[in-house]
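Folding Problem: From Residues to Backbone Shape
Fields: amino acid sequence; protein backbone structure tokens
RECORD BEGINS BELOW THIS LINE
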Amino acid sequence: MAHVEDPRTAPPIRWGILGAGSIAGTFADAVNRHTRAQLAAVGSRNKDRCERFATAHGIPTTHIGYRDLVEDDRVDAVYVATPHSEHREHALLAIAAGKHVLVEKSFARNTGEAEEVLAAARAAGVFVMEAMWTRFLPHIAKVHQLVDAGEIGEIINISADFGHAFTFNPAGRLFDPALAGGALLDLGVYPVSFAHDFLGAPDAVRAVGTLTETGVDGQASIVLSYGDRVQATLSTTLWSSTPTTASISGTEGSVTIAGEFYRPTSFVATRNDGARWQFDQHADGGMQYEAAEVARRVAAGDTESPRMSWQGTLDVMRTLDTVREQIGVVYPGE
């Protein structure tokens, strides 16, 4: 698992970008610079934003609205980059048009919405994946190699944090309950998914948090328990820029991943006997690896990725649902 193929070796695929915000721009840059894929079209409800986005990223076709984008015959796969509150609707729209879909994380607002999207994908026979790009990065593959080889023994604790200081804006996406705002679905999903990646779904979830004036979570601390002695301790906040580091501690050693752990970075592994490994292969961008995974799986006729499987997405969503229930976050319409 330690070898991650060059994204440029993935088969060509034609992307349609649904939504023209900042994360869509990051994805478009990564695809253009590091893959053989084509950005075929972009769709947005805002004509000026759509045209600016297309010009900035060399996209030949613009669609004002989303239905025309997903029905464009020049598009093979749709990248859904709208707010969490709209992921279900837009993923279903793309699936109904027979398109393969990469959905930004968090995959949906809740498990029920995620199950609906995946059931539609199963019925249509199309590929769908949550865009948890961290799982496809070279340093994460190398950490898995070390852990799977038993170099640090049995995992006892995983810790990870992701916080960023945002200026409070009640009308902004991150603070708006109607857009499924809050720290957890935007930032906290990274530590939660990281723990799931190495330990799987937890036996128990305990969380405490504090809400913003608008009723979304401003901060949350989470403990996931596995059996009698294994835990993951995770945190997220909108109020402070935290180190965004991660560590995996085992009976025979530990791995410490530098900030920002969720993007291409370095790590140090140290055994109790003094043996030490360092990984320092930084990569430009990062989202090209998930884009390449989509292209390879689509070419192979697969409907899901083993690295970010449908079950894996549902397991993460169930944990996020439990955290929200415990800290008191409810979105309109749920």
